[in-house]
């Protein structure tokens, strides 16, 4: 997994690329902390560059929702843990533009 970040009007965007597997969860956690520490608003997680993820990778995304988290770019890929969020902290959007419009 690789990651990059951008900022849009105080909203931090974490762009993910490759595959988010168990071996990448520590790097993902660090990336989330890094982006959150440099932005003022909601974190947007852009998953459009991911080729896929394991159950452990998806669980890491759920753990990242300690505060509101916008997720975009899932396409038609199943994400049962994300869409089953019972805390209401994860909001799912079809694309980055939609996520940023409501952040």
Automatic annotation (TrEMBL):
InterPro entries: STAS_dom_sf
Organism: Streptomyces phaeolivaceus
Protein name as catalogued: STAS domain-containing protein
């Amino acid at each position: 997994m690789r990651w990059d970040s951008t900022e849009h009007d105080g909203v931090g965007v974490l762009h993910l690329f490759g595959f988010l597997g168990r071996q990448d969860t520590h790097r993902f956690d660090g990336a989330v902390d890094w982006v959150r520490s440099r932005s003022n608003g909601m974190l947007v997680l852009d998953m459009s560059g991911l080729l896929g993820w394991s159950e452990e990778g998806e669980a890491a995304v759920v753990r990242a929702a300690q505060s509101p988290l916008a997720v975009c770019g899932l396409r038609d890929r199943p994400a049962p843990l994300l869409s089953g969020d019972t805390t209401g902290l994860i909001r799912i959007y079809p694309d980055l533009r939609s996520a940023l419009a409501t952040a």
